[in-house]
Amino acid sequence: MSIVVDSISKSYNSLKALNNISFDVKEGELFGLIGPDGAGKTTLFRILVTLLFADEGKASVAGLDLVEDYKTIRESVGYMPGRFSLYQDLTVEENLKFFATIFGTSIAENYDLIADIYVQIEPFKNRRAGKLSGGMKQKLALCCALIHKPTVLFLDEPTTGVDPVSRKEFWEMIKRLQQKGITILVSTPYMDEAALCDRIALIQDGSLLQIDTPEAIIKKYPKSIYNVSADNMYELIQRLKAYEYSHSVYPFGEYVHYTDKRTHVNTDELKRYLSGHSLANVSIDITEPTIEDAFMELAK
Amino acid sequence: MEDKKVIEVNGLTKMFGDFTAVSAITFDVKKGEIFGFLGANGAGKTTAMKMLIGISKPTAGEAKVAGYDVASEAEEIKKNIGYMSQKFALYDDLTVKENITFFGGIYGLTRSQIKEKTNELIEELGLQDHKDKLVGSLPLGWKQKISFSVSLLHDPKIVFLDEPTGGVDPITRRQFWEMIYKSADKGTTIFVTTHYMDEAEYCDRVSIMVNGKIEALDSPKKLKELHQADTMNDVFLKLARG
């Protein structure tokens, strides 16, 4: 096991940020921590990279105890915080050199690991980090987190605030790093990124809702989901919520995801009910649940 | 949704020196429509929106927002629109009630209007027990819902939302979109700028900006059909990567 988290809890005054969290990450695994802002993702990351003490519980990273071996752990892990934390006044190259030196290594020594990421920002190596675009900053931060060749990489919301194109590129980089044998723990508020991980943990309000592969989480979803649409979205939502057999009603892009209290849903009857309430062009089709549906059902 | 147009943009252009940030964009938005304004970082979304809300003058072209010209009647536009962003929402060290009073004052409401609106809003959001709490102590999702309601205090014709639901938990996010649908149903036009493609899926129509130009404009459904994509994210990747 590369990361073992055992009953970790942490409070800030009266706020319980983490509530008895336990999970394992296997060696070479890409593990996603999926949850909204305020769920406790960053607190957990800060504990695992030895920047914060847990109130209760214990954990090990790369086989080392979090408290006893904190100095050795720092040499073995790479950490990319959610907030851009490089020196804004240093250039791209100076930042990288700085982090290499701190860890007692050089850019040349571990260049292989960062080469395909660094070439993308190399044309700007004399530009100050503060003047880079969002996507470039992410790439530089990743290079700096990798320059000492860590065995475990912690990426805290690396894709928040970047556009879809940069997001996709970033995930491709993460996948390539995994192929090089690095264990990766990544957090994200985007449910659609869950599918890119080997296993995920869904987290909300400091508690884990479920841990499994994305496929298994979807498979365990207990209900049949229907895509419902009609001309008036607002009216449709109100009518579905008022329907006597309604279990959950969530707007989902151009559709509403509807689940029913009964095992066997009579869609003709539902259609008649909706049409009878002056909704036009009603359509009801069965659809596959997503990670987001699973998250909402568990958080309900 | 009605056929009446509340935003009419014709050849709108903004240049910074030699650089064309927004290049002759043309589109309309209807009353009660939820319109998504999408683009990658640096595509020109923010520059275009600044012109529409009357805080940046166009280099060429014209636009009418709520019936007023963006170049010559900017002050009138500001009175007729609401604005909400994820980055700037409410004052953390004022209570819920104080925030509403403050923004009501800014929007030019009278004291009795503010009082009435405050009660209405607090009841609608179910915040009776929390109205005297500091906004900073409330969960993010609540702040977003209050912030949206505050942007509607002066009954604007159009509300501009800048990445409204990024990072919010999925259930609260749905409650937020229900509030948006409700306002649109009452005839308020919703103009959403975002680069979160899942927010785009909720819009009646979306436009996608690439390098200062509008490269696509249609309903999410039609855009997905046209580009043979399952999600707006895939549509966006196809367009932005050329």
Task: Describe the secondary structure blueprint for this structure.
The complex is a heterodimer of chains A (300) and B (242).
Chain A: E1 3-12, E2 15-25, E3 30-34, H1 41-48, E4 56-61, E5 64-65, H2 70-76, E6 77-80, H3 92-102, H4 111-121, H5 134-146, E7 152-156, H6 164-179, E8 183-188, E9 199-204, E10 207-212, H7 214-219, E11 225-229, H8 233-242, E12 246-252, E13 255-260, H9 267-276, E14 283-287, H10 291-299
Parallel strand pairs in A: 3-8, 3-9, 6-7, 7-8
Antiparallel strand pairs in A: 1-2, 1-4, 4-5, 9-10, 11-13, 11-14, 12-13
Chain B: E1 5-16, E2 19-30, E3 34-39, H1 45-52, E4 60-65, E5 68-69, H2 74-80, E6 81-85, H3 96-106, H4 111-124, H5 140-151, E7 158-162, H6 170-185, E8 189-194, H7 197-200, E9 205-210, E10 213-218, H8 220-226, H9 232-241
Parallel strand pairs in B: 3-8, 3-9, 6-7, 7-8
Antiparallel strand pairs in B: 1-2, 1-4, 4-5, 9-10
Helix pairs in contact in B: 3-4, 5-6
Write a structural description.
The complex is a heterodimer of chains A (300) and B (242). In chain A, 34% of the residues lie in helices and 28% in strands. Chain A has ten helices and 14 strands. In chain A, the strands form three sheets. Chain A has a six-stranded mixed β-sheet, with helices on both faces. The relative contact order of chain A is 0.14. By secondary structure, chain B is α/β, with parallel strands linked by helices. A six-stranded mixed β-sheet of chain B has the order 6-7-8-3-9-10, sandwiched between helices. Chain B has a four-stranded antiparallel β-sheet with strand order 2-1-4-5, covered by helices on one side. The longest helix of chain B has 16 residues, at 170-185. Chains A and B meet through helix 6, helix 8, strand 12 and helix 10 of A and helix 6 and helix 9 of B.
